[in-house]
Amino acid sequence: MSTYDYDLITIGAGSGGVSASRYAASMDARVAICEAGRVGGTCVLRGCVPKKIFMYSAQFADAFADAGGYGWQLPQAPVFELSRLTAAKNVEIDRLELEYRRALAASGAKLLSGRAEVLDPHTVQINGEKLTAQRLLIATGGSPNRPDIPGIELAVTSTEMLELTAPPRRLLILGSGYIGVEFAGIYHSFGSAVKLAYRGELPLRGFDGDLRKRLAKAMEDRGIELHRGFHPVRLERVGDEYICHGNDGLQLHADLVLNAMGRSPNTANLGLEQAGVALDPQTSAVKVDAYSRSSVPSIFAVGDVTDRLNLTPVAIAEGRAFVDTEFGGVPRSVNHATVASAVFSQPPLGHIGLSEEQAVQDGHRIQVFEADFRPMRNVLPGRNERSYMKLVVDADSNKVLGLHMIGTDAPEIVQGLAVAVTMGASKRDFDATVAVHPTMAEEFVLMRKPRA
Predict the structure, then answer these.
(1) Is 351 among the catalytic positions?
(2) What would the DSSP string read from start to end of 399-415?
(3) Which CATH architecture best describes the domain 347-445?
(4) What distance in Å separates the CA atoms of residue 110 and residue 364, rounded to the nearest whole number?
(5) Distance CA 42, CA 140 (A)
(6) Catalytic hit among 231, 253, 364, 437
(7) Predicted pLDDT of residue 1
(8) Helix ranges (DSSP H) in 108-231
(9) CATH for the 6-144+264-326 domain, from 3.60.40.10, 3.50.50.60, 3.30.360.10, 1.25.40.20
(10) Which tens digit of pLDDT belongs to each residue from 415-450?
(11) How far is 345 from 259, CA to CA, in rounded Å?
């Protein structure tokens, strides 16, 4: 008989923690999962799910604008009420949280409500009670950064943006990662005058350069004001408005400021370092090996708290791989090199594999195939926004190293093609595929001449 209270104690009931806990319980492991707040984590409660609901709503602005080109006459100008959307979103989030709780209960995993702290490699304290487990899993996710900028506490974060009941007249967004560009598009469609201010030359650092350039142009064409090379040094409130001061003296005025300058792992005050768990000195992320094991053999971590690849499906995959390895007897790790992702900007983009810049940096001799065109759906409404697709191919092996797209339905298209890229498809495989016509996706199998 085990001398521990549980075989596994998980801290954090987000996507990764819940998935791992349910899966371990299905293997007859005795599992407890600790959560200080609501069940569901960032993705379900204040991230991808509610943000996608807002994105769907924002898309109606384009649909209404384009309807006339397709013969539709709207009897009156559409009226948007953010309060109704936020209320409907909250009902759906409540439903999803209840489903998460039901799924945990059905699996046999025990949900413990309260803030947990690690006391030693096998012991957790929650609500004053000490519990032991053979293994501990840290799945506490991440939260918005608070940069060392005077007055930054005046800015809201992505969490508050999803709870507004009326769009601000003027919105200033600091940061141009996926959170910044997504909310810029959403609230511009909701009627806000949006300014996006960031330190670099292009938004979405780390993505393929051609996608970044085209997204910046598309955002400006839509009326979003971009402030490149902006380094905020102070945020203040003067009367009813906020003023953000840049290091070059530029002042940006707004009725609401969104701090979208990154996220950090939730490792503070968990007792990890006292238990011997090594944290990254720059990010405070839990340092783990390929099997999600920390520097303490009995303590593991998955998801955003490890700052490896901060995507919900990755956290779920890491959690399940951990369970297979530790409880299923099948050692398995997650390949982070070939993971598709999307940004629900306007227009959206998706990609998998290496960017052109990364491929060159890694020493590949490459060929680049691309298609740049005005989608058929934009012609009748007179919309000039273009779509762009790109394949980065190893010139020696003919293997597709990276696939990139910006344009309508890019996330859905890239998800399908990600299967081929994950399997190691060659450019010849793409060429041998018969196109589905007329579609946008067919352009990926019709590219024949590499870029000069």
Answers:
(1) no
(2) BEEEEEEESTTHHHHHH
(3) 2-Layer Sandwich (3.30)
(4) 50
(5) 10
(6) 437
(7) 60
(8) 158-161, 178-189, 209-222
(9) 3.50.50.60
(10) 999 999 999 999 999 999 999 999 999 999 999 999
(11) 17
